[in-house]
Amino acid sequence: MPIKIPDQLPASDILREEHIFVMTEKRAATQNIRPLKVLILNLMPKKIETETQFLRLLSNSPLQVDIELLRIDNRPSKNTPTQHLDTFYRQFEMVKDRNFDGLIITGAPLGLVQFEDVIYWEHLQSIMTWAKEHVTSTLYVCWAAQAGLKLLYDLPKRTRKEKLSGVYKHQTQNNYHPILRGFDDEFLAPHSRYADFTSEYLQTHTDLDILATSDVAGVYLASTKDKRNVFVTGHPEYDANTLHAEYVRDLSEGMEPTIPVNYYPNNNPDNPPRASWRSHGHLLFSNWLNYCVYQQTPFDLEHFSEANFTKDD
């Protein structure tokens, strides 16, 4: 089944060239089915690149997914044309009275910024609080995972001394959990963050199900027991060259970044990197859509109620 996105969204042509089934709004209007409604709060600077990455992963499902894009505020963007934002993105005030099957909150380049110093921190908190009563399942990615843990568990910001950058091996911790259905015992996933997520810390201070961990990168995947909040500390959506672009950017800014771990062939930045995490990324998003969203959401979103979800679901 397809994802439904605005007809003129730049991602449309890219996804079609990759033979991904994308349905236009015009065609979707003739379909007499109940699509999943998923909201993406895009906090990354390069909006078009990020939205395309997430749409690619959301397309790998037999479910029809109706996507809406949300921006955190109306400040001008240095990396995304104003016309694109005005055309394809909504302000929170436009959707706050509606219910959604799923919400994805992306990462943000704020690893060294304290929460209270983030210009939109209070607004982000209000959106995450709103999601408790209006969204079936929320997926927090990278920096958003740390923000979500602060909101839900009042965990303080934990920052590593050095940036974690590269592709790391992870082990599954609960092979029978629906989110891990079909996962290999070990898999690779990229990280690019300063945040620190150790298993011991999350096990001590939360009641989360720890689903996948790395000896080096710590917790990669965790979920509340009702699957209504899922935390991904890495970047399964990244393209093959995304970490390279970040590495080159940091070099150009006069920083001394370490070479991303297990990323370049022979650890040589002159060698083109190859993605080694695509299969797990597609499976993760497919499982989230199926087991955390589709299997739990009410058929009629107007009847959404937080009381419909219990920890035993």
Task: Tell me which CATH architecture applies here.
Answer: 3-Layer(aba) Sandwich
- Give the uncertain stretches in residue-range form: none
- The coarse silhouette is globular
Going by CATH, what is the homologous superfamily? Answer: Class I glutamine amidotransferase (GATase) domain
Question: Per DSSP, what share of the residues sits in E-state strands of 2 or more residues?
Answer: 15-25%
Instruction: Look at the structure and give the mean pLDDT.
Output: 91
- Radius of gyration, taken over Cα atoms and rounded to an integer in Å: 19 Å
Give the oligomeric state of the chains in this entry, treating copies of one chain as homo and distinct chains as hetero: single chain
Counted up, domains total 1
CATH fold category name: Rossmann fold
Total of DSSP H or I helical runs spanning 4+ residues: 9
Largest sheet: 12 strands, mixed
How would you classify the helix and strand content by structural class?
A: alpha/beta
Total strands: the figure is 12
Helix-strand sequence? EHEHEHEHEEHEHEEHEEEHH
What is the rounded distance between the termini? Answer: 26 Å
CATH class descriptor: Alpha Beta
GO molecular function: homoserine O-acetyltransferase activity; homoserine O-succinyltransferase activity
Catalytic activity: L-homoserine + succinyl-CoA = O-succinyl-L-homoserine + CoA
Protein name: Homoserine O-succinyltransferase
Pfam families: HTS
